[in-house]
Specification:
Length: 248
């Protein structure tokens, strides 16, 4: 009977890590050498599933903060979020995620958001949390580090157009080859975001050129005519576009 009790106690002790809420992520933190409270806070929810984690590969060090929460009006131009990371050896890559809760794990990967800078969309009201996972690759081995979260809130109030209207009088469309871009009064140009020009909304790519045709921004699809203007209240290719331009 004593022997059976001893075996039962051993089984319970072995299973305890599986029954604790933080077992998976805390065990990962120990394996990759997290040794400070601040580091553990930043990396506690990093998902390393299916990654070829190699202890000999240096972990990326994130040297910048995500900053305070920000709030934008609907369709306003958001400021880009930038992360800075370093590593002694290897190649760094990036993947941005969005989350409905304030956590840097369990989020949804943002398609195409694989640079050190990401500009959040402002086409829908609500609050989202953004973070980036930085990967260091050396040969077949990798190490990952997740940033903290950046809280972005979009209000239901439409962005004021006073500044836009002021630039419309002197702003002008410019052509580079087959591409069009918009030059503001001060010589700058919109890029990687939305801009309202003479009552119409345009979406510009990372190089500042207008997008045309179908394009996915965040979770939503939009359609832009041949001049780059967002199409609203219309049916295109069998899909209906609402008054906000979002495909229904």
């Amino acid at each position: 009977m004593k022997l059976k009790r001893g075996l039962l106690a051993g089984v319970v002790l072995c299973c305890m890590p599986l029954m604790t809420a933080c077992s998976a992520k805390d065990t990962i933190g120990i394996l990759v050498g997290s040794n400070s409270e601040e580091t553990q806070k930043e990396e506690k929810t990093v998902d390393l599933n299916a990654a070829n984690i190699d202890d000999s590969v240096g972990k990326p060090e994130i040297t910048s903060e995500m900053g305070d929460p920000v709030t934008y009006d609907l369709h306003a131009t958001a400021d880009p979020i930038t992360v800075e990371a370093t590593v002694s050896e290897g190649t760094l890559s990036y993947q941005w995620y969005r989350n409905n809760v304030d956590s840097n794990g369990g989020g949804t990967a943002i398609d195409g958001a694989t640079e050190a800078t990401y500009t959040p969309p402002t086409t829908e009201s609500g609050t989202l949390y953004y973070y980036v996972v930085v990967t260091n690759t050396v040969g077949d081995g990798v190490q990952l580090t997740a940033s903290g979260t950046k809280c972005v809130t979009i209000t239901e109030q439409e962005a004021a157009t006073d500044d836009t209207e002021a630039t419309e009088e002197t702003g002008s469309w410019q052509q580079s080859g087959d591409n069009w871009w918009y030059q503001r009064e001060d010589g700058t140009y919109p890029a990687n975001g939305w801009e309202e020009i003479k009552g119409k909304w345009y979406l510009f790519d990372e190089n500042g050129y207008i997008r045309t045709g179908w394009y996915q921004w965040g979770d939503n699809w939009f359609y832009f005519d041949e001049n780059g203007a967002m199409v609203c209240d219309a049916d295109i290719d069998g899909y209906h576009l609402g008054s906000d331009g979002i495909m229904q």
